[in-house]
Design brief:
This protein is an alpha/beta fold. It folds into 2 domains: 2-60 and 144-293, Cupredoxins -  blue copper proteins (Immunoglobulin-like); 61-100 and 108-139, no CATH class. 39% of the residues lie in helices and 21% in strands. The protein is elongated. Copper (II) ion binds at residues 152, 225, 260, 262, 264, 268, 271.
Length: 296
């Protein structure tokens, strides 16, 4: 019904949009270009774990900084919470009607008011002194070794290696095939994944060399998506008609997963991100084959 309303509201874009969507899904179900390069055994490093509540292992300086900042903030929050709880407890115990039948009638206490204004300001400045440098480190994009343009689409990602004339789409393995079934299990196994990686593994992973500065330009072709890899400490909205950037330098070879992190429509949960961080030699070999498999 919403779709019908949208169609009625924007008749010019409505029909071609549906036609394109229909063509897209037919095409998606058919043969998709897939890389033929074997990147060898790679350890799965950046993935959620059952019952996990902490962070994924930090694989970049940015992620390490973020996790350290989170730990420091937790200490500050814990101290403030304990202090306020203790104050409350003391007030309830000491100044209830029985213990304190005649309440004081004063309304101001200048030293106290100055204190409860200045102390929070000092705390905020202290936090800012640590959080702003982390923020600037993320947002000031360094000179990149590898440049990738990523476009969010309903519901997959497209990657363009802009220095290399390489372009490919990246779909979740088993996209549009229902819950985990034998057919999907075979596809996952063929791609070197176990059943646990269902909903995270993609047919065409992003491949980057270890120790290289990767600059990603993030955009979208339809609605707002967000490209996120927790272990890299990066998250950037892809907004239609705009270009945003993020960067990371992965320090450890392995497989890293992420997911679209902006509610983007009915298949928002089914457009995961897979990044394989490989040795420079393996990356060169992949590039060579990718130029053939995925011509821009
Ligand atoms: Cu999305």
């Amino acid at each position: 019904m919403i779709f019908n309303m949208l169609g009625a509201l924007c008749p010019r874009v409505g029909k071609p949009g549906f036609a394109a969507a229909a063509a897209m899904s037919v095409w998606a179900a058919g043969a998709r270009a897939q890389s033929t390069v074997d990147l060898g055994e790679l350890e799965i490093v950046g993935a959620p774990v059952p019952r996990g509540t902490g962070f994924q292992p930090a694989a970049t300086e940015l992620a390490r900084d973020l996790q350290w900042l989170d730990g420091m903030l937790f200490v500050i929050i814990a101290i403030i919470t304990l202090f306020v709880t203790a104050l409350l407890g003391w007030v309830i115990y000491r100044y209830n009607e029985t213990s304190n039948p005649t309440p004081a009638r004063f309304t101001h206490n200048s030293p106290l008011e100055v204190t409860w204004t200045v102390v929070p300001i000092v705390i905020l400045i202290f936090i800012g002194a640590f959080s702003l440098p982390v923020l600037f480190k993320q947002q000031i994009i360094p000179e990149g070794d590898v440049h990738i343009k990523v476009t969010g689409r309903q519901w997959f990602w497209s990657y363009e290696y802009t220095d290399e004339d390489i372009y490919f789409d990246s779909y979740m393995i088993g996209y549009g095939m229902g819950n985990l079934n034998d057919e999907i299990r075979v596809m996952l196994a063929d791609a070197g994944y176990s059943d646990d990686e269902f909903l995270l593994a993609t047919d065409n992973p992003v491949v980057v060399p270890v120790g290289a500065v990767v600059v990603m330009t993030v955009t979208s072709s339809d609605v707002i998506h967000a490209w996120t890899v927790p272990a890299f400490g990066v998250k950037q909205d892809g907004v239609p008609g705009r270009l945003a950037q993020l960067w990371f330098e992965a320090e450890r070879e392995g497989i890293y997963f992420g997911q679209c992190s902006e509610l983007c429509g009915k298949d928002h949960a089914y457009m995961p991100i897979t990044v394989k961080v490989v040795s420079p030699e393996a990356y060169e070999a992949w590039l060579e084959q990718a130029r053939i498999d995925f011509p821009a």
